[in-house]
Amino acid sequence: MPVYYLEFIVVALGLVLLMVDAFVKLEDKRSLARLAILGLVVVFGLLFFVKAPATAEGGIWNFYAAPDKLSLFFKGLALLSTILVLIMAIDYTPLVVAQTANPEPGAHPQAGLGEFFALPLFACAGLMWMSSANHLVSIFVSLETVSITFYILVAYLRRNVGSLEAGVKYLILGALSTGFLVYGFAWLFGVTGSMDLAGIGEALAKEGVNTTAALFAFALILIALAFKLGAAPFHLWIPDVYQGAPTPVTAFLSVGSKAAAAVVTLRLVSPFLASTPLVGKVTAVLAIVAILTLLVGNLAALPQKNFKRLLAYSSVGHSGFLLMALAAAPRVSVENAMSPATVVGFYLGAYLLMTLLAFLVISSLRAAIPGEELDSYRGLAKRSPFHAAALVVAMASLAGIPLTAGFFGKLFAFQMAIDAGQWWLLAAALVAAAAGFYYYLKIAVSMYFSAPGKEDDTSAIRVAPLTGIAMAVLMILIVLAGVAPGVIIGLLL
Amino acid sequence: MSTLELLVFLPLVAALAVGLGAPARFTALGASVLVLCFAIFCAINFKTNLEGGMQFESTRTLLEMQGFPKLSLAFGLDGISLVLVLLSALVLLAAVWVAPAESSIKGNARLYYLSLLLIGGGAIGAFTATDLFFLYAFHELALIPTFLMIGIFGHGEQRVRTAWTITIFLGVGSLILLVGLILAVGALGATTFDVATLTALAKDTPIAAEMQSWIFLLLFIGFGILVSLFPFHSWAAPAYAEAPTPVAMLHAGVLKKFGLYGLIRLAMPLAPAGAEKWLNLVLILLLGNILYIGLVTIAQKKLDRMLGYSSVMHMGYAFLGIAAGNVIGVSGAVLLMFAHGLSIALLFGLAGWMRDQFGTLDFDRLGGIAKPMPKLGLMFGFAAFASVGLPGFANFAAEVEIFFGAFAGEDTAMTWIRWATIGALWGVVISAVYMLRAYRTVFMGPKPDKLTTPADLSWATRIPLLLLLVALIAVGFAPDLLNQFIRPAVNALLLGVAG
Fold first, then answer.
1. CA distance A482 to chain B (A)
2. Closest partner residue to B151 among A403, A449, A489, by Cβ?
3. A–B: how many Cβ contacts below 8 A?
4. Nearest CB to B63; choose among A382, A389, A486
5. pLDDT-based confidence at B148, cuts 50/70/90?
6. Which of B64, B68, B164 sits opposite A415 (nearest CB)?
7. Which listed site, A149, A218, A454, B132, has its alpha carbon 20 to 30 Å from B277?
8. What is the mean pLDDT of residues A307-318?
């Protein structure tokens, strides 16, 4: 089966969902989400049956790379995160309905809900396309497909001021970064005379390449990608948008959007790293951005009191580790070196598992506890040991404690920095990791050490079966990848 | 599944079972009895006539990737690990046994027993792992429940603060240690995390002297923080005083020994030149442990704090044995790890029981309880004698070996280490002073009027503690019971270093 069928199926599924929502009278629109999950699981299964085409030239293959392990891996990540986001969205439904319901008498009580389940599918198709994009135009189009879907999703709670504010901020800054990206692409085309990545790579590797213009193009593209990745100093939108957006959307932004940005960065930066005249300056710039991101993200997370805001800064911090792997990419093709693609892929895989686990807990608790402040999690260990245990696993992995997936993600990145002799980067990463220990542990502390306040609800909290299964599977995967990282590496190599 | 995999995963699987709803105390107790049986089985089948290599080895490769050292889930036992596994199994069983009944644990009994099993399983894993990653990771696995236990089930108002203090101290220690280990693996250019291969590499192609000195310093401070080396000791006494009794027993008795184990197993073989370079610093700090902390111990006014400081102080002797760097000194250090682990667990077990009964451990409010409670008095007396290092207890054999090892040598010149040994000898006097003073205040003399004495130790409390005491006396009278395992292993290790 040709690989691009997968994206078609996902888009078709989204359209079917919209049609069903419009023409079929559903009592409970959550069945739409269940339908979408079922469809995505099938597509996820199909991922293992795609074959590389005999000739990957001409026609669609000018815009779309033949499937390699990396692109399939990222397609898998996109599908997995969409499935989990939809599971979260089911739990989150009451809050969405409260903010979007049509007050007119006789209206369907869940009037505005259908699109909330359909839109993630379009974003998912964009993410999947992006992992195979090998042409500046298709990179741009897929990136915008995802961004525009996210503009809608972030502002989805239309009667909630926070959500609307987040939507506007995201839209304005997102549009600005798109401008930088296009301008960068224009310069890159001007320097290399080519729009597809292979051609760009060849042109950049030549001796007589105009380095000033190429570096200018690189700087513009890096600004746009740093915005999408949430790398300092272009991370300012992250905390506000993460806090304001509906929790499932925040999760999707923090995982799907970051994975996509990372894969695009990987593909766009690789030609620069492979070019002898440019590589020195490019790695220096990347290292500076990585150091800034590591320090800003992790140090700013320390005083946070809102859980989603804390996770927002932590997501900035994790972008720092991703960039660290890129900045420490081997200068010449050393025979015995880890490839940045493998490290970035593993890191993102681990990041997906642990971040989505954390967000699953938040969204499934949202109906039972008063808010998303850290104080609301007081005494959670007594009310729901399962949620608390899941959150401990997620936090341990985010902090990078051994025997969890997060530890190996960090270790690989550290190893690359050591191999490249990037000592400043290493020092910043150590500070970042140490700060991470503190603020992730703070959450475990508020769940286990503090008793619930007098006026707090102390009744037990139940877990929806689907959410419970998803959480258990994620916990097992985190520990499995933390003991035997070969499980994930095998999918990449 | 090999024997050692069973041994390591048994407590972990039991912990999972407890988490999923198995009866907590029953499962925990059953698992720890089985663990002790397995450990004894290993000791009986351990071949002492071999030249100190690893036995019961098993390896499962988990990751082979270009540019990254090979990772495998590998276990093995040599004499040193065997002794420490026996210690862990004994203390785990005693700790689970003296833990309060499920009904009397406020809040979450399941979490309580689950954590104990994780601490025990993590410690055993760390002592048997022959892969650097798992050696480190299993120790971390044991640390996290320790923090949680102190914060949730600890005594006193300050417990959350104490939990944070110990978390930050040990977290930073582990991080420093990790940096040192990564540097060492990188400097060796190793393609595997297998400790034996790393050691062999370090012998054949030693790391540059400058680098060795950095690596040793990082490892020494990292492991040192975990062992409460002076001046990084301030977490220890409050943590042990406020931790639930079984946790204090497990951490002070077993988990803390990981730092010493790491120094013997990793720091010395990987960076021998570094060890030589920093010898004087090591000697000064260990004297700080023995003499300064010894005096601090005398000044304590509460039994649990005093015991906490005494355990910090005794670590100084172990450092001295390691610093001696010869077979007798290092063997003495290993034997002391065993002896001290049992005696401090015994003391904390008894002190915990007393705190539950009297509601206080202030020296001012206790006194004269040996007469109404002779069994407690006798047990505590034995434990205190053991801790002081009276002949007949394992501690004596260990300390004598350490002093002999540290003073050994053909020439008559007074080297620094000999001066340090003379200084350390005074520690014996100091520990006699604080232990006997404590014994006199609590058990002898007039009984304060307000103090009501409960019933004496029941059999249920006595059995687990007697287990520890019997082991201490047995090894004290026949140190060769363990030395037959320790000596060849230490010999092989030191031969591997010196070349």
1. 10
2. A449
3. 85
4. A486
5. confident
6. B68
7. B132
8. 93
Q: Give residue for tokens 């907590």.
A: B24
Tell me, yes or no, whether A218 lies in a domain. no
Structural domain range at position A481: 297-493
Write a three-state SS string for chain A.
CCCCHHHHHHHHHHHHHHHHHHHCCCCCCHHHHHHHHHHHHHHHHHHHHCCCCCCCCCHHHHCECCCCHHHHHHHHHHHHHHHHHHHHHHHHHHHHHHHHCCCCCCCCCCCCCHHHHHHHHHHHHHHHHHHHECEHHHHHHHHHHHHHHHHHHHCCCCCCHHHHHHHHHHHHHHHHHHHHHHHHHHHHHHHHCCCEHHHHHHHHHCCCCCHHHHHHHHHHHHHHHHHHHCCCCCCCHHHHHHHHCCHHHHHHHHHHHHHHHHHHHHHHHHHHHCCCCCHHHHHHHHHHHHHHHHHHHHHHHCCCCEHHHHHHHHHHHHHHHHHHHHHCCCCCCCCCCCCHHHHHHHHHHHHHHHHHHHHHHHHHHCCCCCCCEHHHHCCHHHHCHHHHHHHHHHHHHHHCCCCCHHHHHHHHHHHHHHHHCCHHHHHHHHHHHHHHHHHHHHHHHHHHCCCCCCCCCCCCCCCCHHHHHHHHHHHHHHHHHHHCCHHHHHHHC
Q: Report how many domains make up chain A.
A: 1
Q: For testing the chain B interface, which of A393, A423, A441 should be mutated: the one with the most B CBs within 10 Å?
A: A441
Q: Do residues A254 and A247 touch, judged by C-beta distance below 8 A?
A: no
Q: Is residue A102 part of a domain?
A: no
Q: Is the pLDDT of residue B394 over 90?
A: yes
Q: Name the residue facing B108 among A382, A433, A493 (closest C-beta).
A: A382
Q: Which of A336, A403, A445 sits opposite B151 (nearest CB)?
A: A445
| Contact residues on chain A for B151, CB-CB shorter than 8 A | 445, 448-449
Asked if A489 lies within 8 A of B65 by C-beta distance, the reply is: yes
By mean pLDDT, which of B13-27, B94-108, B320-334, B460-474 is the weakest? B94-108
Residues from chain B that touch A441, judged by Cβ atoms under 8 A, are: 147, 167
Average pLDDT over residues A229-234: 89
Q: Do B62 and A419 touch (CB under 8 A)?
A: no
Average pLDDT over residues A338-363: 91
**Nearest-CA distance from A54 to chain B in Å?**
29
pLDDT band, residue A250 (cuts 50/70/90):
very high
Residues 439-478 of A with CB under 8 A from B: 441, 444-445, 448-450
Q: Answer yes or no: is pLDDT of A205 > 70.
A: yes
Any domain includes A199: no
Rounded to the nearest integer, the mean pLDDT of chain B is: 90
More confident residue, A98 or B41: B41
Q: Which of B63, B148, B168 sits opposite A485 (nearest CB)?
A: B63
pLDDT of residue A333: 54
Question: According to the model, what pLDDT value does residue A379 have?
Answer: 78
Q: What is the pLDDT of residue A278?
A: 86
Residues B94-107 have a mean pLDDT of 82
CB contact under 8 A, B179 and A493: no
Query: If you average pLDDT over residues A299-315, what whole number do you get?
Result: 92
Are the beta carbons of B182 and A418 separated by less than 8 Å?
yes
- pLDDT for residue B499: 47
Looking at residue A112, what is its pLDDT? 79
A363 CA to chain B: closest CA distance, Å?
23
Q: What is the pLDDT of residues B157-201, one digit of tens each?
A: 888 889 888 988 998 899 899 989 988 998 888 889 999 999 988
Q: Is residue A56 part of a domain?
A: no
Q: Return the residue in A332, A392, A393, A483 with the most chain B beta carbons within 10 A, the one to mutate for interface testing.
A: A483
